[in-house]
Design a protein that fits this description.
The structure is a single chain. Helices cover 28% and strands 32% of the residues. By secondary structure, the chain is α/β, with parallel strands linked by helices. The chain has 2 domains: 88 residues, Elongation Factor Tu (Ef-tu), domain 3 (Beta Barrel); 158 residues, Rossmann fold. The chain has a 7-stranded antiparallel beta sheet with strand order 6-1-2-5-4-3-7. Strand 3 and strand 4 form a beta hairpin. Helix 5 packs parallel to helix 6.
Length: 282
C-alpha cells in the first residue's frame, strides 16, 4: 500500500498527489513513469513522475480527471492509500549539455516537462520553456517552470493568460528569430506534439516527444503500448516513452488511442449513474 502524504488541486479537474514510495523515489529519473492500481478491481494506468524526493521518500503525480480511474484517484485524500504502484518505468531522459533547449508542455504535459527542464538546466543548458493550456485557469506549475527556465512563454487558447494561441505559434516565432536551438522537448496531447515535430522538421532540429499510449503491464509483454517509430514497432513502456518525434507515425498513435473510446465513455457514464465508486467515497 502506498499512502498519500499530500494532495493539492492545481486547477479544475487537475490534481497533484504526493505519495510515500521510498524505493521508487530513490530510483526515479526525469522522463520516467509509474503504473498504478487503486484497488484489487482497478485498472492499471500509467502516470508520469512529475517530481521525486529521494530523501523524503516521495514521488509526485499530476493528472487530469478524464476517465473513471482518474476520477476515482482524484477523490482520494491525504491519508488514503493506493494498492499498487510499479516503477520507475521507462527509459529516463538523456540529460547532458546540448546548448539551447526548448521545453514545451501542453496541458498536464506541463507537469511532465518540469523535471526534465530542471535536470537539463542543472546540466548547464539554456532553457527556453513554452507552456500552454486552454485557459488561464488550466495553467499549472507556472512558477516552478519559470524557476528552472532562462525564459518562459505562456500561451492560452482563449487569451486569458499570456499570449493567445497555441504553443506552436511561439515555437514558430523562435525558429524564425533565434539561431542555435539544439534540442526541442515536447510533452502534451498527440496533436500538439505532432505539430511541433512538423515545425522543427525543416530546420532539422532534434525533437523528442514523450508518448503516453494505452498500457497494461508496463514491461513490454502485453504489446498494448506499441507504437510505430521509423517504420518499426516499438513499445513505449520499455523502448520509450521518449522517441524521435520526426520518426513517430502519429496517425497510428492517434488511431490506437481511440480504440476504446466507447468503453471509456460507458465507464464514465456508469461512474456518474449513482453507483458507488471503488474507492468507497461518494
Amino acid at each position: 500500500m502506498y499512502k498519500i502524504a499530500a494532495k493539492k488541486v492545481l486547477a479544475p479537474a487537475i490534481k497533484q498527489l504526493q505519495i510515500s514510495a521510498p524505493e521508487i523515489a530513490a530510483g526515479a529519473r526525469p522522463g520516467q513513469f509509474i503504473i498504478l492500481r487503486i484497488d484489487e478491481k482497478g485498472e492499471r494506468i500509467p502516470l508520469t513522475i512529475a517530481d521525486y524526493d529521494p530523501r523524503g521518500g516521495t514521488i509526485t503525480l499530476v493528472f487530469q480527471e478524464a476517465g473513471r480511474t482518474t476520477m476515482e484517484l482524484g477523490r482520494l485524500e491525504e491519508g488514503d492509500a493506493i494498492l499498487d504502484i510499479v516503477g520507475p518505468l521507462g527509459k529516463p531522459t538523456e540529460i547532458r549539455r546540448y546548448g539551447k533547449v526548448v521545453c514545451i508542455g501542453g496541458g498536464v504535459g506541463i507537469a511532465a516537462i518540469y523535471p526534465i527542464a530542471r535536470a537539463l538546466k542543472e546540466a548547464g543548458n539554456e532553457i527556453v520553456s513554452i507552456i500552454g493550456a486552454r485557459s488561464r485557469g488550466q495553467l499549472i506549475l507556472v512558477e516552478k517552470i519559470g524557476a528552472v527556465s532562462d525564459s518562459l512563454e505562456i500561451v492560452t487558447e482563449d487569451g486569458s493568460g499570456g499570449r493567445k494561441g497555441f504553443v506552436t505559434g511561439v515555437l514558430q516565432d523562435l525558429l524564425v528569430s533565434e539561431e542555435g536551438i539544439d534540442l526541442v522537448m515536447a510533452i502534451g496531447p498527440p496533436a500538439m506534439m505532432r505539430a511541433v515535430a512538423e515545425l522543427t522538421r525543416p530546420y532539422r532540429i532534434r525533437t523528442v516527444a514523450s508518448l503516453n499510449p494505452i498500457m497494461v503491464d508496463g514491461i513490454g509483454m502485453c504489446g498494448a503500448c506499441r507504437v510505430t517509430v521509423g517504420g518499426k514497432t516499438r513499445f513505449a513502456c520499455v523502448d520509450g516513452p521518449e522517441f524521435d518525434a520526426h520518426l513517430v507515425d502519429w496517425s497510428v498513435l492517434v488511431q490506437r488511442a481511440r480504440m476504446f473510446r466507447e468503453e471509456e465513455k460507458r465507464a464514465v457514464e456508469d461512474y456518474f449513474s449513482g453507483s458507488e465508486c471503488r474507492c468507497g467515497k461518494r
